Amino acid sequence: MAGFFDTYVQAPTGSAFVGKEEKEEMIASAYPFPILKVVKGQTQYGERYIITTEIEGEERSLGFGAGTVFSRDRLLDNVAEWLEAGNPPPTVVMKRIKRSIVLENPNAEAE
User: Fold this and answer.
1) Strand order in the sheet with 46-55
2) Rounded Cα gap, residues 53 and 92, in angstroms
3) Does residue 98 sit within a domain?
4) What pTM does this model have?
């Protein structure tokens, strides 16, 4: 008799998540990245936005808590609609404002 794992096929896990240290490096260097997809849903960490991006030719994911930073939530909701309409992926940078991470236009003039 075959064992369970002889026939079990692991579902693909998708893209690798950007870790805390890598996210901090991206913030510090104002690294621009495209938002390819936005999904909002419940996770084990509460309601979150999961964005799919491409970093150095590799598909990656970034997670952000929903309901914690209004401007970021609004931007991600609008990006989701933009992408669903068939428009090209926008490019953003992450910026830290106090304890929050916001997403901004990389071509915006510094304040």
Assistant:
1) 16-17, 58-65, 46-55, 37-43
2) 10
3) yes
4) 0.81
Nearest alpha carbon to residue 17 among 81, 95, 7, 45: 45
Residue 78 within any structural domain of the chain: yes
Closest CA to 72 of 40, 111, 110: 40
Domain that holds residue 38: 13-104
Say how far apart CA 98 and CA 41 lie, in whole Å.
26
The HSE-up count of residue 64 (CA atoms within 13 Å, CB side) is 25
Q: Which two tokens stand for residue 86?
A: 């068939």
Domain-located, residue 5: no
Nearest 5°: the CA angle 105, 78, 76 is 65
51-88 residue pLDDT tens: 999 999 999 999 999 999 999 999 999 999 999 999 99
Domain count, the chain: 1
pLDDT tens profile 10-51:
544 566 899 899 999 999 999 999 999 999 988 888 899 999
Residues 31, 22: contact at Cβ < 8 Å?
no
